[in-house]
Design goal:
heterodimer; A: alpha+beta; Herpes Virus-1; B: mainly alpha; Serum Albumin, Chain A, Domain 1; 81% helix; elongated; thiol protease (chain A)
Chain lengths: 502, 96
Amino acid sequence: TSIVPFPNGNHFWTDSSPAGCSHVNGYKVDNWKQNLRVIYQCFVWSGTAETRRRKAKSCICHMCGAHLNRLHSCLYCVFFGCFTKKHIHEHAKNKRHNLAIDLLYGGIYCFVCQDYIYDKDMEQIAKEEQRKAWKLQGIGEKYTTWEPTKRELELLRHNPKRRKITTNCTIGLRGLINLGNTCFMNCIVQALTHTPLLRDFFLSDRHKCEMQSNSCLVCEMSQLFQEFYSGHRSPHIPFRLLHLVWTHARHLAGYEQQDAHEFLIAALDVLHRHCKGDTINDNGKKANNPNHCNCIIDQIFTGGLQSDVTCQVCHGVSTTIDPFWDISLDLPGSSTPFWPLSPGGDGSTVNGESHLSGSTTLTDCLRRFTRPEHLGSSAKIKCGGCHSYQESTKQLTMKKLPIVACFHLKRFEHSAKLRRKITTYVSFPLELDMTPFMLLYPYFECCNASTLESGHYTSFIRQHKDQWFKCDDAIITKASIKDVLDSEGYLLFYHKQFLEYE
Amino acid sequence: MSKDSQMRAAINQKLIEMGERERLKEVLRAKLVECGWKDQLKAHCKDVIREKGLEHVTVEDLVTEVTPKGRALVPDSVKKELLQRIRAFLAQHATL
Protein backbone atom coordinates (compact mmCIF):
# COMPACT_ATOMS: atom_id res chain seq x y z
CA THR A 1 0.00 0.00 0.00
CA SER A 2 1.10 3.56 -0.54
CA ILE A 3 -0.18 6.83 0.80
CA VAL A 4 -0.76 9.75 -1.49
CA PRO A 5 -1.52 12.99 0.29
CA PHE A 6 -3.94 15.41 -1.34
CA PRO A 7 -4.75 19.05 -0.71
CA ASN A 8 -7.98 18.46 1.13
CA GLY A 9 -6.15 16.54 3.81
CA ASN A 10 -7.38 13.06 2.91
CA HIS A 11 -5.09 10.16 2.36
CA PHE A 12 -5.89 7.31 0.03
CA TRP A 13 -4.90 3.75 0.82
CA THR A 14 -4.47 2.22 -2.56
CA ASP A 15 -4.61 -1.51 -2.10
CA SER A 16 -6.74 -2.21 0.90
CA SER A 17 -10.52 -1.91 0.93
CA PRO A 18 -13.25 -1.62 3.56
CA ALA A 19 -13.87 -4.78 5.54
CA GLY A 20 -15.45 -7.84 3.98
CA CYS A 21 -16.04 -10.96 6.05
CA SER A 22 -15.19 -14.63 5.75
CA HIS A 23 -18.85 -15.69 5.83
CA VAL A 24 -19.32 -14.71 2.21
CA ASN A 25 -17.06 -17.57 1.14
CA GLY A 26 -19.97 -19.97 1.37
CA TYR A 27 -21.83 -17.78 -1.09
CA LYS A 28 -18.98 -17.24 -3.53
CA VAL A 29 -19.29 -20.53 -5.39
CA ASP A 30 -20.33 -21.55 -8.90
CA ASN A 31 -21.98 -18.78 -10.85
CA TRP A 32 -22.41 -16.47 -7.86
CA LYS A 33 -21.41 -13.28 -9.64
CA GLN A 34 -24.11 -13.63 -12.25
CA ASN A 35 -26.68 -14.57 -9.60
CA LEU A 36 -25.81 -11.48 -7.61
CA ARG A 37 -26.06 -9.29 -10.68
CA VAL A 38 -29.53 -10.64 -11.37
CA ILE A 39 -30.61 -9.81 -7.82
CA TYR A 40 -29.33 -6.25 -8.20
CA GLN A 41 -30.98 -5.81 -11.57
CA CYS A 42 -34.31 -7.26 -10.58
CA PHE A 43 -34.81 -6.07 -7.07
CA VAL A 44 -32.45 -3.23 -6.18
CA TRP A 45 -31.56 -1.09 -9.19
CA SER A 46 -34.07 -1.95 -11.85
CA GLY A 47 -33.18 -0.09 -15.01
CA THR A 48 -35.61 -1.49 -17.57
CA ALA A 49 -39.38 -1.20 -17.63
CA GLU A 50 -39.69 -4.97 -17.33
CA THR A 51 -37.49 -5.30 -14.26
CA ARG A 52 -39.22 -2.32 -12.68
CA ARG A 53 -42.64 -3.90 -13.17
CA ARG A 54 -41.39 -7.11 -11.58
CA LYS A 55 -39.81 -5.21 -8.73
CA ALA A 56 -42.99 -3.23 -8.09
CA LYS A 57 -45.07 -6.37 -7.85
CA SER A 58 -42.78 -8.73 -6.01
CA CYS A 59 -40.93 -6.63 -3.50
CA ILE A 60 -43.08 -7.07 -0.48
CA CYS A 61 -42.38 -8.90 2.75
CA HIS A 62 -43.24 -12.61 2.46
CA MET A 63 -44.38 -12.62 6.05
CA CYS A 64 -46.42 -9.46 6.47
CA GLY A 65 -46.84 -7.97 2.98
CA ALA A 66 -45.32 -4.60 3.84
CA HIS A 67 -43.18 -2.80 1.27
CA LEU A 68 -41.55 -0.45 3.76
CA ASN A 69 -39.63 -1.41 6.93
CA ARG A 70 -36.24 -1.74 5.25
CA LEU A 71 -37.03 -4.70 3.04
CA HIS A 72 -34.19 -7.15 2.50
CA SER A 73 -33.83 -10.05 0.09
CA CYS A 74 -32.16 -13.29 1.06
CA LEU A 75 -29.10 -13.94 -1.12
CA TYR A 76 -29.54 -17.70 -1.11
CA CYS A 77 -33.20 -18.00 -2.02
CA VAL A 78 -36.21 -16.02 -3.13
CA PHE A 79 -37.37 -14.53 0.14
CA PHE A 80 -38.13 -10.94 0.99
CA GLY A 81 -38.47 -9.87 4.61
CA CYS A 82 -38.70 -6.71 6.69
CA PHE A 83 -35.54 -5.84 8.55
CA THR A 84 -37.33 -3.62 11.04
CA LYS A 85 -39.77 -6.33 12.04
CA LYS A 86 -36.98 -8.93 11.99
CA HIS A 87 -38.79 -11.06 9.43
CA ILE A 88 -35.61 -11.48 7.41
CA HIS A 89 -33.73 -12.40 10.59
CA GLU A 90 -36.19 -15.23 11.26
CA HIS A 91 -35.68 -16.54 7.76
CA ALA A 92 -31.90 -16.35 8.12
CA LYS A 93 -32.03 -18.31 11.34
CA ASN A 94 -34.49 -20.96 10.13
CA LYS A 95 -32.81 -21.62 6.81
CA ARG A 96 -29.24 -20.84 7.88
CA HIS A 97 -29.03 -18.38 5.02
CA ASN A 98 -26.58 -15.92 6.50
CA LEU A 99 -26.59 -13.18 3.87
CA ALA A 100 -29.23 -10.66 2.81
CA ILE A 101 -29.30 -7.54 0.67
CA ASP A 102 -30.95 -4.22 1.47
CA LEU A 103 -33.35 -3.51 -1.40
CA LEU A 104 -33.20 0.22 -0.90
CA TYR A 105 -29.45 0.81 -0.96
CA GLY A 106 -27.92 -2.50 -2.04
CA GLY A 107 -25.91 -3.06 1.11
CA ILE A 108 -25.05 -6.67 2.05
CA TYR A 109 -25.88 -7.77 5.58
CA CYS A 110 -24.17 -10.73 7.28
CA PHE A 111 -26.27 -12.29 10.05
CA VAL A 112 -23.24 -13.91 11.63
CA CYS A 113 -21.31 -10.67 11.89
CA GLN A 114 -24.58 -8.85 12.58
CA ASP A 115 -23.40 -6.00 10.49
CA TYR A 116 -23.30 -4.74 6.92
CA ILE A 117 -20.16 -5.97 5.21
CA TYR A 118 -18.25 -4.57 2.26
CA ASP A 119 -16.74 -7.33 0.20
CA LYS A 120 -14.54 -5.92 -2.57
CA ASP A 121 -15.92 -8.11 -5.34
CA MET A 122 -19.53 -7.60 -4.31
CA GLU A 123 -19.01 -3.86 -4.02
CA GLN A 124 -17.66 -3.79 -7.54
CA ILE A 125 -20.72 -5.60 -8.88
CA ALA A 126 -23.04 -3.29 -6.94
CA LYS A 127 -21.33 -0.19 -8.33
CA GLU A 128 -21.56 -1.45 -11.90
CA GLU A 129 -25.19 -2.45 -11.65
CA GLN A 130 -26.19 0.87 -10.12
CA ARG A 131 -24.37 2.81 -12.81
CA LYS A 132 -26.06 0.69 -15.51
CA ALA A 133 -29.54 1.15 -14.09
CA TRP A 134 -29.15 4.89 -13.50
CA LYS A 135 -27.86 5.36 -17.00
CA LEU A 136 -30.90 3.56 -18.40
CA GLN A 137 -33.20 5.77 -16.37
CA GLY A 138 -31.36 8.97 -17.19
CA ILE A 139 -30.56 9.76 -13.57
CA GLY A 140 -26.88 10.52 -13.97
CA GLU A 141 -23.84 9.57 -11.95
CA LYS A 142 -23.88 8.91 -8.27
CA TYR A 143 -21.57 11.09 -6.29
CA THR A 144 -18.52 9.29 -4.95
CA THR A 145 -15.38 10.76 -3.50
CA TRP A 146 -12.56 10.89 -6.01
CA GLU A 147 -9.82 8.30 -5.74
CA PRO A 148 -6.74 8.13 -7.94
CA THR A 149 -6.52 5.26 -10.40
CA LYS A 150 -3.49 2.95 -10.59
CA ARG A 151 -2.35 4.77 -13.71
CA GLU A 152 -2.64 8.17 -12.03
CA LEU A 153 -0.58 6.98 -9.06
CA GLU A 154 2.03 5.64 -11.42
CA LEU A 155 2.23 8.98 -13.20
CA LEU A 156 2.61 10.79 -9.91
CA ARG A 157 5.37 8.48 -8.73
CA HIS A 158 7.36 8.94 -11.92
CA ASN A 159 6.93 12.66 -12.36
CA PRO A 160 9.76 14.55 -10.66
CA LYS A 161 7.72 17.76 -10.80
CA ARG A 162 4.94 16.46 -8.56
CA ARG A 163 3.98 18.72 -5.71
CA LYS A 164 3.32 17.45 -2.25
CA ILE A 165 0.82 19.49 -0.33
CA THR A 166 1.48 19.62 3.38
CA THR A 167 -0.25 21.78 5.92
CA ASN A 168 2.60 24.26 5.94
CA CYS A 169 3.30 24.56 2.26
CA THR A 170 2.63 27.83 0.54
CA ILE A 171 1.79 26.57 -2.90
CA GLY A 172 -0.94 28.65 -4.47
CA LEU A 173 0.40 31.84 -2.93
CA ARG A 174 1.98 34.37 -5.21
CA GLY A 175 2.30 38.10 -5.15
CA LEU A 176 1.12 40.29 -8.03
CA ILE A 177 3.08 43.21 -9.38
CA ASN A 178 1.20 46.50 -9.35
CA LEU A 179 1.13 47.76 -12.93
CA GLY A 180 0.11 51.30 -11.97
CA ASN A 181 -2.85 51.62 -9.60
CA THR A 182 -3.88 48.04 -10.37
CA CYS A 183 -4.19 46.94 -6.75
CA PHE A 184 -7.95 46.87 -7.31
CA MET A 185 -7.43 44.11 -9.85
CA ASN A 186 -4.79 42.35 -7.77
CA CYS A 187 -7.02 41.92 -4.76
CA ILE A 188 -9.83 40.46 -6.88
CA VAL A 189 -7.39 38.08 -8.59
CA GLN A 190 -6.24 36.91 -5.15
CA ALA A 191 -9.86 36.37 -4.12
CA LEU A 192 -10.68 34.38 -7.25
CA THR A 193 -7.55 32.22 -7.24
CA HIS A 194 -8.29 31.27 -3.67
CA THR A 195 -11.92 30.32 -4.21
CA PRO A 196 -11.63 26.55 -3.74
CA LEU A 197 -14.28 25.50 -6.26
CA LEU A 198 -12.94 27.80 -8.96
CA ARG A 199 -9.42 26.60 -8.29
CA ASP A 200 -10.51 22.97 -8.60
CA PHE A 201 -12.33 23.68 -11.87
CA PHE A 202 -9.28 25.25 -13.47
CA LEU A 203 -6.66 22.89 -12.08
CA SER A 204 -8.62 19.93 -13.40
CA ASP A 205 -8.58 21.52 -16.84
CA ARG A 206 -12.34 21.75 -17.25
CA HIS A 207 -12.38 24.71 -19.61
CA LYS A 208 -12.87 23.81 -23.28
CA CYS A 209 -12.33 26.98 -25.25
CA GLU A 210 -14.60 27.77 -28.17
CA MET A 211 -13.31 31.21 -28.93
CA GLN A 212 -11.42 31.65 -32.18
CA SER A 213 -9.23 34.54 -31.07
CA ASN A 214 -6.68 34.64 -28.28
CA SER A 215 -8.81 36.92 -26.19
CA CYS A 216 -10.59 34.38 -24.01
CA LEU A 217 -10.53 35.57 -20.42
CA VAL A 218 -11.30 32.07 -19.13
CA CYS A 219 -8.18 30.73 -20.84
CA GLU A 220 -6.21 33.54 -19.24
CA MET A 221 -7.67 32.62 -15.83
CA SER A 222 -6.64 29.05 -16.46
CA GLN A 223 -3.13 30.25 -17.21
CA LEU A 224 -3.20 32.36 -14.05
CA PHE A 225 -3.98 29.31 -11.93
CA GLN A 226 -1.05 27.49 -13.53
CA GLU A 227 1.17 30.42 -12.55
CA PHE A 228 -0.12 30.49 -8.99
CA TYR A 229 0.35 26.76 -8.48
CA SER A 230 3.63 26.51 -10.34
CA GLY A 231 5.63 26.73 -7.14
CA HIS A 232 7.38 29.93 -8.29
CA ARG A 233 7.74 32.32 -5.42
CA SER A 234 8.51 35.46 -7.40
CA PRO A 235 5.57 37.80 -7.94
CA HIS A 236 3.57 37.31 -11.10
CA ILE A 237 3.13 40.13 -13.59
CA PRO A 238 -0.49 40.05 -14.77
CA PHE A 239 -0.06 42.25 -17.85
CA ARG A 240 -1.96 39.91 -20.17
CA LEU A 241 -4.87 39.76 -17.77
CA LEU A 242 -4.94 43.53 -17.50
CA HIS A 243 -4.91 43.89 -21.27
CA LEU A 244 -7.77 41.42 -21.70
CA VAL A 245 -9.83 43.21 -19.07
CA TRP A 246 -9.27 46.55 -20.87
CA THR A 247 -10.33 44.91 -24.12
CA HIS A 248 -13.54 43.41 -22.77
CA ALA A 249 -14.54 45.97 -20.15
CA ARG A 250 -13.69 49.31 -21.71
CA HIS A 251 -15.06 51.29 -18.82
CA LEU A 252 -12.26 49.93 -16.66
CA ALA A 253 -9.45 50.79 -19.05
CA GLY A 254 -6.86 53.33 -18.10
CA TYR A 255 -4.34 53.70 -15.30
CA GLU A 256 -6.63 55.36 -12.79
CA GLN A 257 -7.53 53.56 -9.63
CA GLN A 258 -10.77 51.68 -10.21
CA ASP A 259 -13.27 50.22 -7.80
CA ALA A 260 -12.54 46.61 -6.89
CA HIS A 261 -16.22 45.79 -6.63
CA GLU A 262 -16.89 47.10 -10.14
CA PHE A 263 -13.93 45.10 -11.37
CA LEU A 264 -15.27 41.93 -9.73
CA ILE A 265 -18.64 42.26 -11.43
CA ALA A 266 -17.07 43.08 -14.79
CA ALA A 267 -14.66 40.14 -14.52
CA LEU A 268 -17.44 37.70 -13.58
CA ASP A 269 -19.50 38.99 -16.49
CA VAL A 270 -16.74 38.49 -19.05
CA LEU A 271 -15.82 35.07 -17.64
CA HIS A 272 -19.48 34.07 -17.75
CA ARG A 273 -19.76 35.18 -21.38
CA HIS A 274 -16.54 33.41 -22.38
CA CYS A 275 -17.61 30.16 -20.68
CA LYS A 276 -20.00 29.27 -23.49
CA GLY A 277 -17.96 26.22 -24.43
CA ASP A 278 -18.32 24.73 -20.97
CA THR A 279 -22.03 25.23 -20.56
CA ILE A 280 -23.88 21.95 -20.44
CA ASN A 281 -27.45 21.47 -19.36
CA ASP A 282 -29.07 18.40 -17.83
CA ASN A 283 -29.46 16.47 -21.07
CA GLY A 284 -25.78 16.69 -21.82
CA LYS A 285 -26.43 19.15 -24.61
CA LYS A 286 -24.89 22.58 -24.95
CA ALA A 287 -27.21 25.18 -23.50
CA ASN A 288 -28.09 28.03 -25.81
CA ASN A 289 -30.14 30.05 -23.40
CA PRO A 290 -28.13 32.69 -21.50
CA ASN A 291 -30.77 32.76 -18.80
CA HIS A 292 -30.29 29.14 -17.93
CA CYS A 293 -26.55 29.12 -18.06
CA ASN A 294 -24.83 26.41 -16.13
CA CYS A 295 -21.28 27.69 -16.48
CA ILE A 296 -18.85 27.46 -13.60
CA ILE A 297 -19.32 31.15 -12.81
CA ASP A 298 -23.07 30.77 -12.46
CA GLN A 299 -22.69 27.56 -10.51
CA ILE A 300 -20.42 29.19 -8.00
CA PHE A 301 -21.45 32.84 -7.80
CA THR A 302 -25.07 33.23 -8.89
CA GLY A 303 -27.76 33.54 -6.27
CA GLY A 304 -31.42 34.54 -6.43
CA LEU A 305 -32.82 37.64 -4.76
CA GLN A 306 -36.53 37.70 -4.13
CA SER A 307 -38.39 40.97 -3.93
CA ASP A 308 -41.90 40.96 -2.45
CA VAL A 309 -44.00 44.09 -2.79
CA THR A 310 -47.11 44.04 -0.61
CA CYS A 311 -49.99 46.37 -1.31
CA GLN A 312 -51.04 48.05 1.92
CA VAL A 313 -54.68 48.08 0.95
CA CYS A 314 -55.49 44.63 -0.43
CA HIS A 315 -52.35 42.90 0.93
CA GLY A 316 -51.73 41.32 -2.45
CA VAL A 317 -48.08 40.35 -2.92
CA SER A 318 -46.17 40.79 -6.15
CA THR A 319 -43.00 38.70 -6.27
CA THR A 320 -39.98 38.84 -8.54
CA ILE A 321 -36.75 36.88 -8.34
CA ASP A 322 -33.59 38.29 -9.85
CA PRO A 323 -30.17 36.69 -10.16
CA PHE A 324 -27.29 38.32 -8.31
CA TRP A 325 -23.53 37.97 -7.98
CA ASP A 326 -23.16 40.08 -4.90
CA ILE A 327 -25.21 41.68 -2.13
CA SER A 328 -24.53 45.36 -1.59
CA LEU A 329 -25.14 46.38 2.00
CA ASP A 330 -25.81 49.85 3.33
CA LEU A 331 -23.76 50.95 6.31
CA PRO A 332 -24.57 53.15 9.30
CA GLY A 333 -23.03 56.57 8.82
CA SER A 334 -24.37 56.91 5.31
CA SER A 335 -27.07 59.44 4.57
CA THR A 336 -29.79 56.77 4.38
CA PRO A 337 -30.77 56.00 7.96
CA PHE A 338 -29.57 52.65 9.20
CA TRP A 339 -32.08 50.45 10.96
CA PRO A 340 -31.94 51.51 14.60
CA LEU A 341 -30.81 48.50 16.57
CA SER A 342 -31.03 48.38 20.32
CA PRO A 343 -27.59 47.81 21.85
CA GLY A 344 -27.07 44.10 22.38
CA GLY A 345 -30.40 43.51 20.67
CA ASP A 346 -31.67 40.01 19.89
CA GLY A 347 -29.33 38.03 17.76
CA SER A 348 -26.49 40.44 18.14
CA THR A 349 -24.22 37.57 19.05
CA VAL A 350 -25.74 35.11 16.56
CA ASN A 351 -22.47 34.69 14.75
CA GLY A 352 -20.17 35.22 17.69
CA GLU A 353 -19.02 38.41 16.06
CA SER A 354 -16.76 40.54 18.19
CA HIS A 355 -18.72 43.42 19.53
CA LEU A 356 -16.61 46.38 20.46
CA SER A 357 -19.49 47.98 22.27
CA GLY A 358 -21.99 49.22 19.77
CA SER A 359 -20.06 48.28 16.65
CA THR A 360 -22.11 47.14 13.71
CA THR A 361 -21.90 43.53 12.59
CA LEU A 362 -22.28 41.96 9.16
CA THR A 363 -25.41 40.26 10.47
CA ASP A 364 -26.83 43.68 11.40
CA CYS A 365 -26.29 44.79 7.81
CA LEU A 366 -27.95 41.65 6.49
CA ARG A 367 -30.86 42.13 8.85
CA ARG A 368 -31.28 45.67 7.61
CA PHE A 369 -31.09 44.44 4.01
CA THR A 370 -33.93 41.98 4.53
CA ARG A 371 -36.24 44.10 6.67
CA PRO A 372 -39.58 45.22 5.22
CA GLU A 373 -39.36 48.76 3.92
CA HIS A 374 -42.32 51.05 3.70
CA LEU A 375 -42.33 52.76 0.32
CA GLY A 376 -43.79 56.16 1.12
CA SER A 377 -46.75 57.98 -0.38
CA SER A 378 -44.49 59.48 -3.04
CA ALA A 379 -43.59 56.01 -4.28
CA LYS A 380 -46.96 54.35 -4.80
CA ILE A 381 -47.04 51.28 -7.01
CA LYS A 382 -49.77 50.13 -9.36
CA CYS A 383 -51.47 47.27 -7.57
CA GLY A 384 -52.81 44.50 -9.81
CA GLY A 385 -55.42 43.60 -7.21
CA CYS A 386 -56.75 47.08 -6.49
CA HIS A 387 -56.22 48.32 -10.08
CA SER A 388 -54.96 51.63 -8.71
CA TYR A 389 -51.86 53.20 -7.19
CA GLN A 390 -51.38 52.27 -3.58
CA GLU A 391 -48.76 52.54 -0.87
CA SER A 392 -46.81 49.37 -0.31
CA THR A 393 -44.04 47.69 1.61
CA LYS A 394 -41.14 45.99 -0.04
CA GLN A 395 -39.04 43.19 1.35
CA LEU A 396 -35.94 41.50 -0.02
CA THR A 397 -35.03 37.94 0.81
CA MET A 398 -32.14 35.84 -0.35
CA LYS A 399 -34.10 33.07 -1.97
CA LYS A 400 -31.05 31.19 -3.10
CA LEU A 401 -27.57 31.83 -1.82
CA PRO A 402 -24.75 30.97 -4.20
CA ILE A 403 -21.92 28.66 -3.20
CA VAL A 404 -19.70 31.68 -2.81
CA ALA A 405 -21.55 34.71 -1.53
CA CYS A 406 -19.91 38.10 -1.96
CA PHE A 407 -21.00 40.84 0.39
CA HIS A 408 -20.16 44.36 -0.72
CA LEU A 409 -20.17 46.96 2.02
CA LYS A 410 -21.25 50.24 0.46
CA ARG A 411 -18.47 52.41 1.69
CA PHE A 412 -18.71 54.98 -1.05
CA GLU A 413 -21.33 57.62 -1.05
CA HIS A 414 -21.75 59.85 -4.05
CA SER A 415 -23.54 63.09 -3.49
CA ALA A 416 -23.81 66.11 -5.77
CA LYS A 417 -20.65 67.63 -4.39
CA LEU A 418 -18.30 64.88 -3.37
CA ARG A 419 -17.49 61.25 -3.06
CA ARG A 420 -17.24 60.25 0.53
CA LYS A 421 -15.88 57.11 2.11
CA ILE A 422 -17.73 55.66 5.09
CA THR A 423 -15.13 54.25 7.42
CA THR A 424 -17.51 52.75 9.98
CA TYR A 425 -15.98 49.55 11.31
CA VAL A 426 -18.17 46.54 10.55
CA SER A 427 -17.23 43.32 12.28
CA PHE A 428 -17.63 40.10 10.35
CA PRO A 429 -17.43 36.47 11.49
CA LEU A 430 -15.29 33.59 10.29
CA GLU A 431 -18.37 31.40 10.21
CA LEU A 432 -21.61 32.89 9.02
CA ASP A 433 -24.91 31.38 10.05
CA MET A 434 -27.56 32.38 7.55
CA THR A 435 -30.51 30.72 9.29
CA PRO A 436 -32.09 34.01 10.41
CA PHE A 437 -32.40 34.91 6.72
CA MET A 438 -33.29 31.78 4.90
CA LEU A 439 -34.69 28.32 5.27
CA LEU A 440 -32.03 26.17 3.73
CA TYR A 441 -28.37 25.93 4.17
CA PRO A 442 -27.03 27.68 7.19
CA TYR A 443 -23.24 27.64 7.25
CA PHE A 444 -20.80 29.73 5.29
CA GLU A 445 -17.10 30.24 5.97
CA CYS A 446 -15.24 33.42 5.21
CA CYS A 447 -12.63 32.67 2.55
CA ASN A 448 -11.50 36.17 1.44
CA ALA A 449 -11.73 39.66 2.82
CA SER A 450 -10.68 42.64 0.72
CA THR A 451 -10.10 46.01 2.21
CA LEU A 452 -9.41 49.53 0.94
CA GLU A 453 -7.35 51.86 3.04
CA SER A 454 -5.83 55.19 2.02
CA GLY A 455 -6.66 54.50 -1.59
CA HIS A 456 -4.87 51.16 -1.58
CA TYR A 457 -6.46 47.75 -1.85
CA THR A 458 -5.18 44.69 0.00
CA SER A 459 -6.83 41.33 0.56
CA PHE A 460 -6.70 38.56 3.12
CA ILE A 461 -6.97 35.06 1.76
CA ARG A 462 -7.53 31.78 3.54
CA GLN A 463 -5.15 28.88 2.90
CA HIS A 464 -5.85 25.37 4.18
CA LYS A 465 -8.36 25.49 6.98
CA ASP A 466 -7.16 28.17 9.32
CA GLN A 467 -4.17 29.95 7.88
CA TRP A 468 -4.56 33.46 6.57
CA PHE A 469 -2.26 35.50 4.39
CA LYS A 470 -2.30 39.20 3.58
CA CYS A 471 -1.83 39.99 -0.11
CA ASP A 472 -0.47 43.48 -0.71
CA ASP A 473 0.36 43.49 -4.43
CA ALA A 474 3.71 41.69 -4.68
CA ILE A 475 4.06 41.15 -0.95
CA ILE A 476 2.46 38.18 0.77
CA THR A 477 2.75 37.97 4.54
CA LYS A 478 1.28 35.64 7.11
CA ALA A 479 -1.68 37.16 8.94
CA SER A 480 -3.44 36.26 12.15
CA ILE A 481 -7.16 35.68 12.42
CA LYS A 482 -7.29 38.84 14.51
CA ASP A 483 -5.69 40.85 11.69
CA VAL A 484 -8.42 39.63 9.38
CA LEU A 485 -11.31 40.21 11.73
CA ASP A 486 -10.10 43.68 12.71
CA SER A 487 -9.76 44.83 9.12
CA GLU A 488 -12.15 47.31 7.57
CA GLY A 489 -13.96 44.97 5.23
CA TYR A 490 -15.03 46.16 1.83
CA LEU A 491 -15.69 42.96 -0.10
CA LEU A 492 -16.32 39.82 1.92
CA PHE A 493 -16.44 36.39 0.31
CA TYR A 494 -18.18 33.52 2.09
CA HIS A 495 -17.97 29.93 0.91
CA LYS A 496 -20.62 27.30 1.62
CA GLN A 497 -19.38 24.52 3.82
CA PHE A 498 -19.91 20.84 3.12
CA LEU A 499 -20.63 20.19 -0.50
CA GLU A 500 -20.82 17.41 -3.00
CA TYR A 501 -19.17 18.09 -6.31
CA GLU A 502 -21.09 17.31 -9.44
CA MET B 1 -54.43 -4.69 4.85
CA SER B 2 -56.31 -1.46 5.50
CA LYS B 3 -57.60 0.71 2.66
CA ASP B 4 -54.90 3.23 3.51
CA SER B 5 -52.00 0.81 3.29
CA GLN B 6 -53.51 -0.70 0.14
CA MET B 7 -53.45 2.77 -1.40
CA ARG B 8 -49.87 3.30 -0.22
CA ALA B 9 -48.75 0.02 -1.73
CA ALA B 10 -50.47 0.83 -5.03
CA ILE B 11 -48.85 4.27 -5.22
CA ASN B 12 -45.48 2.78 -4.34
CA GLN B 13 -45.84 0.20 -7.11
CA LYS B 14 -46.70 2.87 -9.66
CA LEU B 15 -43.74 5.00 -8.61
CA ILE B 16 -41.37 2.04 -8.97
CA GLU B 17 -42.83 0.90 -12.29
CA MET B 18 -42.37 4.32 -13.88
CA GLY B 19 -38.89 4.77 -12.44
CA GLU B 20 -40.11 7.84 -10.59
CA ARG B 21 -39.23 6.47 -7.18
CA GLU B 22 -35.54 6.26 -8.06
CA ARG B 23 -35.61 9.79 -9.47
CA LEU B 24 -37.37 11.19 -6.41
CA LYS B 25 -34.91 9.44 -4.13
CA GLU B 26 -32.04 11.17 -5.89
CA VAL B 27 -33.75 14.58 -5.80
CA LEU B 28 -34.37 14.16 -2.09
CA ARG B 29 -30.83 13.05 -1.42
CA ALA B 30 -29.38 16.08 -3.23
CA LYS B 31 -31.67 18.49 -1.36
CA LEU B 32 -30.84 16.98 1.99
CA VAL B 33 -27.14 17.42 1.29
CA GLU B 34 -27.58 20.98 0.09
CA CYS B 35 -29.46 22.13 3.17
CA GLY B 36 -26.95 20.65 5.57
CA TRP B 37 -29.21 17.86 6.79
CA LYS B 38 -26.70 15.17 5.87
CA ASP B 39 -23.95 16.83 7.84
CA GLN B 40 -26.12 17.43 10.88
CA LEU B 41 -27.09 13.77 10.91
CA LYS B 42 -23.50 12.70 10.32
CA ALA B 43 -22.45 14.71 13.35
CA HIS B 44 -25.26 13.14 15.37
CA CYS B 45 -24.14 9.65 14.30
CA LYS B 46 -20.64 10.42 15.47
CA ASP B 47 -22.05 11.50 18.84
CA VAL B 48 -24.03 8.26 19.18
CA ILE B 49 -20.96 6.21 18.27
CA ARG B 50 -18.87 8.07 20.79
CA GLU B 51 -21.52 7.56 23.42
CA LYS B 52 -22.00 3.83 22.86
CA GLY B 53 -18.33 3.14 22.17
CA LEU B 54 -16.93 2.27 18.75
CA GLU B 55 -16.50 -1.41 19.63
CA HIS B 56 -20.03 -1.87 20.92
CA VAL B 57 -22.26 0.20 18.68
CA THR B 58 -24.46 -1.65 16.19
CA VAL B 59 -26.31 -0.58 13.07
CA GLU B 60 -29.51 -1.00 15.05
CA ASP B 61 -28.33 1.46 17.70
CA LEU B 62 -27.66 4.04 15.05
CA VAL B 63 -30.94 3.48 13.24
CA THR B 64 -32.92 3.69 16.49
CA GLU B 65 -31.15 6.80 17.73
CA VAL B 66 -30.85 8.68 14.49
CA THR B 67 -34.20 8.04 12.75
CA PRO B 68 -36.43 10.29 14.90
CA LYS B 69 -33.99 13.19 14.69
CA GLY B 70 -33.51 12.63 10.99
CA ARG B 71 -37.25 12.77 10.38
CA ALA B 72 -37.69 15.89 12.50
CA LEU B 73 -34.86 17.77 10.80
CA VAL B 74 -36.13 17.52 7.25
CA PRO B 75 -37.04 21.10 6.29
CA ASP B 76 -40.71 21.73 5.58
CA SER B 77 -39.85 23.19 2.21
CA VAL B 78 -38.24 19.91 1.15
CA LYS B 79 -41.24 17.89 2.32
CA LYS B 80 -43.55 20.27 0.48
CA GLU B 81 -41.61 19.99 -2.74
CA LEU B 82 -41.46 16.20 -2.68
CA LEU B 83 -45.18 16.06 -1.96
CA GLN B 84 -45.88 18.37 -4.89
CA ARG B 85 -43.84 16.19 -7.19
CA ILE B 86 -45.61 13.04 -6.09
CA ARG B 87 -48.98 14.73 -6.53
CA ALA B 88 -48.04 15.88 -10.01
CA PHE B 89 -46.89 12.38 -10.87
CA LEU B 90 -50.14 10.83 -9.66
CA ALA B 91 -52.21 13.38 -11.51
CA GLN B 92 -50.39 12.35 -14.68
CA HIS B 93 -50.80 8.62 -14.16
CA ALA B 94 -54.13 8.60 -12.38
CA THR B 95 -55.47 5.16 -13.22
CA LEU B 96 -55.35 4.06 -9.61
